[in-house]
Amino acid sequence: MDMQPELCRVEDALGIIVGKWKPIILLILLQAGTQRFSELKRRVPGITQKMLTKQLRELEEEDIIERKVYPQVPPKVEYSITDYGRGLEPILVAMHEWGAAHALHKVKKM
Q: Is the pTM for the entire model greater than 0.85?
């Protein structure tokens, strides 16, 4: 690994995906595919409507997810991961695996 610490871009990457809800939202969209707002809300227990809206907007601004609005009444809105956003999948999987291993490591140390 040839990274120069002074040119490190890890903080930039973390700024996009860090938070309590974003990794969960991304994993749902990666695994389940396109979801309506209400489906996402149901699949992320504990998240408020306001927070889900905020997280989705931030991910959309970074071109990680896309929002498609259907012109009908009542409005239908769907969210899906972009091709660009799919590049996060191996990172999220690696972070999940490391997190699971770390939790086990902490239990073993007790």
A: yes
